[in-house]
Design goal:
single chain; mainly beta; three-stranded antiparallel sheet; 2 helices; 10 strands; 52% strand; extended
Length: 164
């Protein structure tokens, strides 16, 4: 009986160990984990996100690796929650296709900060040219089940691949 209990304990612990991720885990395994999140930049969202992007051979255009699903047709719909009323976008028809995006874009930056009491805020913005990088150091977090919230486990490098 002790042998059976020991065998079950080893089997369960090895299964748990196999589910763990580390800096050596593939990005596919990390992304597939329901317990972990990767903090990714949003600049490549138009082509389906960082892990769905590849760079052209000239280094100037990002392309989606897989087709990107987007809303092709929709409408605004009134939503009531108690005394509150707001409008929500509802998609009626989705499409998917390969998408492309220029590596050079613009990024909104604050050009004039102001202070009122203890609060700092931006008074003026300006769109400035921005070249999207090809390499990142991405933070991988464990969402955990406790009250502390997500905890950073490690940072792992990622480089956008060149398109075939």
């Amino acid at each position: 009986m002790k042998l059976l209990a020991g065998f079950l304990l080893v089997l369960l612990s090895s299964n748990t160990f196999a589910q763990r991720i580390s800096i050596h885990s593939s990005w596919e395994k990390i992304e597939a984990s329901f317990r972990h999140i990767v903090l990714k930049p949003s600049e490549l969202n138009p082509v389906g996100g960082l892990f769905n992007a590849c760079i052209s051979s000239d280094g100037e255009t990002f392309h989606s690796i897989k087709d990107v699903k987007f809303c092709a047709e929709g409408h605004q719909e009134e939503v009531r929650q108690g005394d509150s009323v707001f409008w929500e976008w509802v998609c009626d028809r989705h499409e998917s296709s390969p998408l492309s995006q220029s590596r050079t874009t613009t990024k909104r930056e604050c050009t004039d900060y102001a202070q009122e009491g203890d609060n700092f805020f931006c008074r003026a913005f300006e769109d400035k040219p921005f070249r999207i990088p090809l390499s990142y150091l991405l933070e991988v977090q464990d969402t955990g089940m406790g009250e502390a919230g997500p905890v950073t486990l490690f940072k792992k490098p990622y480089t956008i691949p060149q398109c075939d």
